[in-house]
Amino acid sequence: xxxxxxxxxxxxxxxxxxxxxxxxxxxxxxxxxxxxxxxxxxxxxxxxxxxxxxxxxxxxxx
Length: 62
What we know:
Alpha-Beta Plaits, two-stranded antiparallel sheet
């Protein structure tokens, strides 16, 4: 599984990082940073939690 973040759609609510801090990093202004690499199998539920937490739906899981 991979995480894609539409940085233009992100509004900086940081809900993804609150839901799954081990997967979602934020810049200094609170906007989600792109995630490079595969999500470990044991963190797939956390990735889904972060995706659902985003009010702008800026996060896509593949």
